[in-house]
Design goal:
The chain has 242 residues and is mainly α. The chain is built from ten helices and no strands.
């Protein structure tokens, strides 16, 4: 089975997923070998052994060929959220982010290659950021639906902030793992980051009993401070204030 879960058709011929994977691999190879600007759709199709029409059956542009299938991943995360039932909302969103993260683990080498390509080409980086922003919207919408609080109660702000925090924690751990070449198991660090987000926000529902309890802790960090150091310092500050 391929990393995307595709399998050959009943007649033994490559399935649609296999063709898609082959086109994506060809695009990555050409972008890395001769540059983004010099690579055409025709060149990608030729490298993949498919027609131009077949290329556009799977991708809208050459940019799309190197990115994760965000629509499919978001659908999987949404299905996972729907199946969590009475799981506390913040924990559920963190679990949804874990589904997204695991999609990058299906093929670490491909994920690392995509990351470096996106960093090298500003247009690709912008597209990837725009595509990934859909997860923030998905998680915020889920939180608003789960909380079912009256309009004006602060639920929208709360949902947006929590969703952004979850995605930021996800991205920080993912970025560190990709910069490390996709080596090792990043899930324990992801789980620690999500546990930190949960601890900070689960007791702060708008209008909930925890809102306004305790003191506010403000911490300032230098740009680039590792997430582990941020978590440790804030945790110490909160502990000392209680």
């Amino acid at each position: 089975m391929s990393p995307s879960g595709a399998s050959p058709g009943a007649d033994g011929q490559p399935g649609a997923g296999d063709v898609r994977d082959r086109i994506a691999a060809a695009a990555r190879e050409l972008f890395a070998g001769q540059g983004y600007e010099r690579t055409t759709v025709e060149a990608i199709a030729e490298r993949a052994g498919v027609s131009r029409r077949t290329f556009f059956r799977h991708f809208r542009s050459k940019d799309d060929a190197i990115f994760p299938d965000h629509q499919r991943i978001a659908a999987e995360a949404a299905a996972h959220l729907a199946a969590l039932g009475d799981t506390p909302p913040v924990r559920a969103v963190c679990a949804g982010a874990r589904v997204v993260f695991r999609s990058y683990l299906d093929d670490p080498a491909v994920s690392v290659q995509r990351y470096h390509l996106a960093r090298a080409v500003p247009a690709l980086k912008d597209r990837e950021i725009a595509g990934a922003s859909g997860y923030t919207h998905l998680f915020s919408r889920y939180l608003r639906d789960r909380l079912e609080l009256a309009e004006g109660s602060g639920v929208r702000l709360y949902a947006d902030v929590v969703a952004a925090a979850v995605v930021a924690a996800h991205n920080e751990v993912l970025r560190a793992w990709l910069l490390g070449g996709g080596e090792g198991d990043p899930l324990p660090r992801l789980d620690a980051a999500m546990a930190w987000v949960t601890a900070r926000f689960e007791r702060a529902f708008p209008g909930g009993a925890g809102e306004g309890d305790g003191e506010t802790v403000v911490a300032v960090f230098r740009s680039g401070t590792p997430l582990d150091a941020v978590v440790e310092r804030i945790s110490r500050s909160i502990s000392s204030s209680t």
